Amino acid sequence: MRAVARPLFGRRARLRWIHLILGGALAMPYVLVGAIVVGPVAGSTDVFSSFPLQLSSFAVGLPLAAVTSLFPLTRPLESAAVRWLCGVDADRLADGPARGRAAKVRTALWFTLHLAFGGIVAGMSLAVPPFAAVLVVMPLTAGVFGDRLGFPEVFGQPWAMALAPVAGVASLLALAGCAAGAGALLARWAPALLGPTPEDRLAAAEARAADLAVRNRLARELHDCVGHALSAVTLQAGAARRVLDADPEFVREALAAIEETTRRTVGELDTVLGVLRDGDGPGTAPAPTLAADLDGLLRRTRAGGLTVTAEVAAPLEALPPVLSREAYRIVQEGLSNALRHAGEGAGVAVRVEVRAGHLELTVDNPLPSVPATRPGGGHGLPGIESRARVLGGTAHAGPARDTWRLHVRLPLRATL
């Protein structure tokens, strides 16, 4: 019994019934407009007193509904209603307005079907229950309703009195069956008519790719600023601890470098996290540039115990902001690798020069005596390669004679 009743009166069937009644409510303004057209044509002043004229008004109003379905909000609203009331998975429906002729035609067809089925089921929902109630109680009224129904010769018969309650219950079941069937049909057709078109899928894929690109860039910003700061602060604190009693001046310089490094990193971290929280911020978090902070970066790295020499043969102030910012991050990551792998007191050489229309960045440091390993590998070199590739440049890292060399070439006209 429950298996039979659930498709007709279960929760999903009831929600779909509500969806159809909403369609009937939406159809009423169009039916009224249709009545204004049908009335004069049929020569009637009371269209709603005639069932054929009501159907004619309904038929005239549906094309008007198809035209108004071209408004941009129609598809998002219909998709939301189908998702919540018809039980259709969200990923099978389009969220945005219909774009393109095919999508608009399908939306118009869906809206027309929703209003057509909804108008019929809503009308039946208003008319059938009272009629069924009369049939159910007819045996108790001894044929009083026979004259009012217009068939006294039928409803005055004993067999009619016996069958009337059965007919009343059957009409209610028929109403529930029509509503359940119409709801199931609409739920089946919804993905085809309201689902994403190839253009929608392409737009969604492009949006996801753009969002992923932004997140990857923010991840690189976090890796570079936080990774460099942790490496520098670790070595600076270790060097200060070892000479705490022997060289107080060096300790003061190391502590000052730790303070400056952490302060700058907290500011950069707050900027990146702000972009992540807002969700609609710029594609990259603001970062220092070569012109603004190359000297400070070198000074803080020296405070960690490395001997850093720098050769700058490029007009840093004249570099494009994007190029200068990305180049700063590349040099920063190169120095971070040197801090982690070259060892205390090692000499690191940094060269920044312009050659043949390219900005060339080179970081040389001694090869480690014992190769360092990190679980899962690091992300610094892939990040450098990604930055260079986005700018249209190249990046190479590896042993060069007795040193480890990072060499990056970036075109001066590079833009993101």
TrEMBL record:
Keyword presence, Lipid metabolism: no
GO CC annotation, single: membrane
Protein origin, superkingdom: Bacteria
Reactions the enzyme catalyzes: ATP + protein L-histidine = ADP + protein N-phospho-L-histidine
Listed name of the protein: histidine kinase
Domain Signal transduction histidine kinase subgroup 3 dimerisation and phosphoacceptor: residue ranges: 215-279
EC code: 2.7.13.3
SUPFAM superfamilies assigned: ATPase domain of HSP90 chaperone/DNA topoisomerase II/histidine kinase
Keywords of this entry: ATP-binding, Kinase, Membrane, Nucleotide-binding, Phosphoprotein, Transferase, Transmembrane, Transmembrane helix, Two-component regulatory system
Record lineage: Bacteria, Bacillati, Actinomycetota, Actinomycetes, Kitasatosporales
